[in-house]
Amino acid sequence: MKIKISFVLCACWLLLQTACVKDNSVVQVRPVDSIRVTGLADVYSVSIDEQLAIKPAITSGFTPESNMEFLWYAYNNQSVFVADTLSKSRDLAVPVTMSPGNYTLVFRITDKTTGVFYKTLTTLSVVNDYTTGLLVLTETGGEAGLHFLNTVSGKFIEDAYGKGNGGEDAGKAPVCVAYHPQASAMPAEILMLCADERGGVVINPVTFKKERDIRNAFIVPWQAAGVINVQTYVPRASGLQDYLVIDGQAHNRATNAGEVLFRPPMLGDYSLSTVYFNEGASRSSFYDNKNMRFLCHNNTSGSLNPFLAGTTTSIIDPNAVGLKVVYGGRVSGNEHIGVFENADKSVRYLLRFLANGLAQTFTAKEKFVIAADKILQAEKFASSSTLQNYLLYNVGSDIYAYNSLSRSGGWLMNAGTAFTITFLKMNGSELQVGYVNPALPGKKGGFATYEISTLGGLNARLTRSREGFCDRVVDITNKQ
Predict the structure, then answer these.
(1) What per-residue confidence (pLDDT) applies to 3?
(2) How far apart are CA 344 and CA 187, in angstroms?
(3) In the predicted model, is pLDDT for residue 8 greater than 70?
(4) Of 98, 127, 156, which one is at a domain's C-terminal end?
(5) Cβ atoms of residues 186 and 258 within 8 Å
(6) Which of 127, 160, 193 is the C-terminal boundary of a domain?
(7) Three state DSSP letters for 113-163
(8) Are the C-beta atoms of 306 and 295 separated by less than 8 Å?
(9) CA 391 from centre of chain
(10) Closest by Cα among 161, 98, 153, 146 to 131
(11) Are residues 318 and 325 in contact, defined by beta-carbon separation less than 8 angstroms?
(12) 285 and 329 in contact (C-beta within 8 Å)?
């Protein structure tokens, strides 16, 4: 009992001592303001690379704006934990570089005195400009660049690949670019090929985000270190197969079966040219530089094979052509023309033939020496099944046209004074020309497109041009 009484007395004494302690702390009550933001739209719709400009109206009870901190950021379902900070200024004025899609746009104001923050939310819709237009592959200082010209709006998006991939470099030593829409089980894709360590990239055509490197685009993983010597891509069009040519070897995939990865090198004794003869509806035909002959992909065994000799070998023997191929184009269906030259490059021939790679048949139509103005000096060639039987070529900045049926032609146009033409291609009736303009300051590369018409005689009409954004244009491909 004494212990309990002692414990109670001690507790009371401690309470008395605590009650006598003086409290010198200062109690400060800080009022919380009510900061409001108005003037924001429910939805902002902008295109990639366009300026997003917003000037909000801010009202408060007593807090001056000089005592506020501002933050603009945006997020979506994929980036909710890693939001994109857009600005730390009161008014928003930034170019949009995010991928297409809908985002939550947040304007946050923090009261510096109290630390209390206020958020206003709205919707940001980043619109896809990558619909109908031209994919333009370029080289600047050895670096690849992929740009996009929207041919509907006229908007030109420089470094479209970089904008879709957080500024990532597109690669080095660019080779070519190709686009294919979705077909059956095969997804839509852009292939940008480079002769570098990655070999290029496969790109989502909607967002322009990289899906995989070419190095990682093979069924059997690519083992060799260093540069992948990609030389060309043979498109599938509406056909069964497409191909990569690497170090003269063809790597195919069955696009009709939805194969996204390429197979090992096709079997055979060959070293392919970068010139091919695309039939569109089935498989392609190739030219073997090593043995100077045509080859076809006529079966599913994974090999390239010679054509059946047929009955027209007196005109062209597909298995013993004996000439170097310079250019190949399609007239219509399985009918093709090709420019070939002899060993010392003193004569150039035009070969016309029917080739069906799937059926392994080759029918020669004609072979003759091309007697055209400056044909031996011709650097690049172009043709189209829309403008049948015409062969366009350049010598310096001059462009010539040659009719392979009438075997006549001449000067068509000049691309520009002292221009160096780096690219020449026909897409339907449109001529696409890449060039270097020495008169430009800084970057001198550019391109122009012309509508080629036979009305009133063969003529060219300039339809669009861009320049000063690269060192040179390497390739142009249409995207629809």
Answers:
(1) 41
(2) 45
(3) no
(4) 127
(5) yes
(6) 127
(7) CCCCEEEEEEEEEEECCCCCEEEEEEEECCEEEEEEEECCCCCEECCHHHH
(8) yes
(9) 28
(10) 153
(11) no
(12) no
Provide the mean pLDDT of the chain: 90
DSSP of 261-324, one letter per residue? SBPSBPBSS--EEEEEEE-SSS-EEEEETTTTEEEE--SSSSB-EEPP--S-TTT--TT---SE
C-beta separation of 54 from 104 below 8 A: no
Which tokens belong to 477? Answer: 């491909």
In this predicted structure, what is the pLDDT of residue 469? 98
pLDDT in tens, 338-376: 999 999 999 999 999 999 888 899 999 999 999 999 999
How many Cβ atoms from other residues are within 10 Å of residue 48's Cβ?
23
Structural domain that includes position 477: 374-480
Identify the top-confidence range among 20-24, 124-128, 446-450: 446-450
Residue 165 lies in a domain: no
Classify residue 203: in a domain, yes or no.
Answer: no
- Alpha-carbon distance of 247 to 15, in angstroms, equals 92
258-295 per-position pLDDT tens digit: 899 999 999 999 999 999 998 665 678 999 999 999 99
Q: Read off the pTM.
A: 0.79
Amino acid letter at 168?
E
The HSE-up count of residue 104 (CA atoms within 13 Å, CB side) is: 14
Cβ partners under 8 Å of residue 5, min gap 6: none
Q: Which residues contact 66 (CB under 8 A, 6 or more apart)?
A: none
Contact 412, 400 (CB under 8 A): yes
User: How does DSSP classify residue 63?
Assistant: -
Residue type, 210: K
pLDDT for 51-74, tens place per residue? 999 999 999 989 999 999 999 999
Q: In what order do the strands lie in the sheet with 408-414?
A: 381-382, 390-395, 398-403, 408-414
The single residue listed with the structure tokens 């000067």 is 411
Structural domains counted in the chain? 2
What gap in Å lies between CA 304 and CA 241, rounded to an integer? 13
**Residue 383 domain-assigned?**
yes
Whether 337 has a pLDDT exceeding 80, the answer reads: yes
Q: Which helix (H) or strand (E) holds 5?
A: helix 2-19
Q: How far apart are CA 393 and CA 317, in angstroms?
A: 26
